[in-house]
Write a structure and sequence with these properties.
The chain has 18 helices and 22 strands. By secondary structure, the protein is an alpha/beta fold. Among the domains are: 191 residues, no CATH class; 180 residues, Rossmann fold, CATH 3.40.50. The strands form five sheets. Strands 8, 9, 10, 11, 12, 13, 14, 15, 16 and 17 form a ten-stranded mixed sheet that branches. A five-stranded parallel sheet has the order 19-18-20-21-22, sandwiched between helices. Strands 2-1-3 form a three-stranded mixed sheet. A hairpin with a 4-residue loop joins strand 9 and strand 10. The longest helix is centred in the first third of the chain and has 37 residues. The protein starts with a helix and ends with a helix.
Length: 621
């Protein structure tokens, strides 16, 4: 009787404490709700502190409920309840740790005494005394816990798990970070909301796996056989497919299950998690030039989640693809290099030859002329997009780049290059690819007695150097051995390169022929003669700045009105003489027709002689 009375008093005391704590917490919650609703920006009570107090209160209620039920239990039941109560022990430190976790899971337990308990634990086991005690308690009760990486509700029991649960666990183990499929039975379900991170990050190694690609069947129903039906695929890149921010070119760069349908000039990225998106790109670096870009094939780049509806591979490659056009302004040596070869080197050098070049607007003569350079950049024969389209080919790649990474004219900027390349790296590549022997010019006084060589580029149609013979004599009088050459589009690039590389200085009127300066040995001198008409800025941009970037000494000679044939076409007071830069407002077509192609030059040899002397002095030790 006395024992029953004591238990009754204890229960009354705990009941009073319970009511008092309920009132206190209720007032706290009401105050907190009022504060947050009236001042959403208040930071006195953060969400984390709210979770802390709420967790503390719920644990206290659970512990109190456990103690109250234990008062009337027999000895065996009391022992089991003590084990459960230990799991519910209220610890402010543990509650604070729970408040720091981004997510929790609720374990619904059933004990042999028929008692039901809901309590909160961390998603993943943490190191520390509290969780060590929790793990020990779970081991003592011979109950198993299935840990899931996201918010879940898990039904636990002392008995054996179902075969479905074990199968789900094996799937989760085999798939790494991927979520296991949902498993359901009559009474309970395991619900998962796992998110799979598939973005390849620069600071992590790229995950590679072999993927069987769909193969287009032949006419007889048998699948087409290719030497290699698997490709090395990378984790799908969630970055935007294309970058349109550059002033000179739009470029697309993407990885995964990439399929190139040549007949439609499109690249399709198959990604089950991707939203349908499509871009159109003209892979040539003259963005904004409608005339030029009108000669360039438009490439479609799109992402789709519909693998079944995507083009089926007829050939799989284990190297990335780089797609570009040799339309536009190619055929002019300046544009051949500035628009294609220099940016192509900047784009593909990272692959060390392990890259598949895909070309649009192919001209066979262009491939012949620059074939040696192309073979140095890629070990694989280039794909002609038009021919592949006519054959109905679908090429598949693990990675693809559409368009080229172009910087300034004939220049690779080290700070912008993905691989830290610069213009001298390109000219070094050029000398190596063409077996050009000289990487330094002849120096005056080197003891060999040889005279430095000056190559004068003679133009054949426009901006003619009318007194070429007088310029040659003046250069010889200064001390040069002079060579005259007319650059022609049909000349072999190897022959032109060896001729230029044998010289120590290059002289020419503004024009594409000056592009040959890239074959000069570093330290040589390049002299540009600029026609009349305020063309200094374009002359420096096209050839002056690139010459300096190549490690050459640069001299710019700007002719006077008396040296231009324009004086014979226009009256002395015409705007073309008084304000030539004002004519630039009429557009580049007018400038080219009037100021570039519309005049020839007769150099004032007396005025020009100091320029020749400076070019020679640049070669002194």
């Amino acid at each position: 009787m006395k024992g029953s009375s004591g238990r009754l008093q204890a229960l009354r005391f705990e009941s009073q404490r319970f009511r008092l704590l309920t009132i206190v917490v209720g007032c706290f919650l009401i105050s907190l709700t009022f504060l947050l609703s009236s001042r959403p920006d208040a930071t006195v009570f953060s969400t984390r502190m709210f979770i802390f107090f709420l967790s503390f209160f719920l644990r206290y209620l659970s512990s109190l409920r456990c103690i109250m039920q234990a008062q009337g239990a027999n000895k065996q039941q009391r022992s089991e309840l003590q084990t459960l109560c230990a799991l519910h022990a209220v610890s402010p430190r543990e509650s604070l740790e729970d408040a720091r976790m981004p997510a929790i899971k609720t374990l619904h337990r059933s004990s042999s005494a028929g008692l039901v308990r809901d309590f909160h634990v961390d998603i993943l086991p943490q190191q520390g005394d509290t969780h060590a005690h929790l793990q020990q308690s779970v081991d003592q009760t011979a109950e198993k816990t299935e840990w899931v990486k996201d918010t879940v509700i898990i039904q636990e029991g002392a008995g054996e798990r179902s075969e479905e649960a074990e199968a789900a666990e094996r799937v989760a183990a085999d798939s790494g970070d991927e979520a296991a499929p949902a498993v359901a039975d009559e009474d309970n379900a395991v619900k998962t909301t796992a998110a799979v991170e598939t973005t390849a990050r620069p600071d992590q190694p790229v995950e590679e796996k072999k993927q069987q690609l769909p193969v287009k069947p032949q006419d007889d129903g048998e699948p087409a056989r290719t030497p290699e039906q698997t490709v090395t695929t990378h984790s799908v890149d969630r970055r935007p497919l294309c970058d349109f921010s550059d002033f000179r070119t739009d470029i697309c760069d993407f990885s995964g299950d990439v399929r190139m349908a040549a007949n439609t000039s499109e690249f399709v990225v198959v990604d089950p998690a991707a939203a349908a998106v499509s871009h159109k790109v003209r892979p040539y670096p003259r963005k904004g030039d409608a005339t030029c870009m009108g000669r360039v094939t438009e490439i479609t780049v799109r992402a789709t989640a519909d693998a079944a509806g995507a083009p089926r591979c007829t050939r799989a490659h284990d190297v990335p693809a780089v797609t570009f056009s040799i339309g536009g302004y190619t055929g002019n040596i300046f544009h051949d290099f500035s628009d294609v070869i220099v940016p192509l080197y900047n784009t593909v050098q990272r692959y060390r030859g392990g890259v598949q070049l895909v070309m649009a607007n192919v001209a066979s003569w262009w491939l012949v002329k620059y074939g040696k350079l192309l073979r140095e950049l890629s070990r694989h024969a280039p794909i002609d997009l038009a021919k592949a389209g006519a054959a109905g080919e679908v090429h598949c790649f693990p990675h693809a780049v559409v368009s080229l990474r172009a910087h300034r004219e004939l220049i690779i900027e080290r700070e912008r290059s993905l691989d830290g390349l610069a213009t001298p790296d390109f000219t070094r590549f050029l000398r190596g690819a063409l077996s050009l022997p000289r990487d330094a010019p002849t120096r005056l006084g080197d003891g060999t007695g040889r005279r430095p060589r000056l190559l004068i580029i003679s133009r054949g149609r426009t901006r003619l150097l009318l007194n070429l013979d007088a310029v040659v004599r003046a250069a010889e009088e200064v001390g040069f051995e002079v060579v005259v050459n007319e650059s022609d589009v049909g000349n072999s690039i190897e022959q032109v390169g060896k001729l230029i590389n044998s010289c120590d200085a290059l002289l020419g009127v503004h024009g594409a022929g000056l592009t040959n300066m890239m074959f000069l040995p570093p330290g040589a001198t390049m002299v540009q003669v600029v026609p009349w008409g305020g063309l200094q800025w374009i002359a420096r941009m096209d050839y002056g700045e690139p010459a300096a970037a190549m490690g050459l000494k640069y001299i710019q000679y700007e002719i006077a009105v008396a040296e231009s044939s324009l004086k014979d076409k226009y009256p002395a007071g015409d705007e073309i003489f008084t304000n030539p830069t004002g004519l630039h407002k009429r557009g580049f077509a007018f400038m080219k027709r009037t100021l570039m192609d519309g005049q020839d030059i007769t150099i004032d040899v007396t005025r020009f002689r100091p320029v020749l002397q400076q070019a020679l002095d640049n070669l002194a030790k």
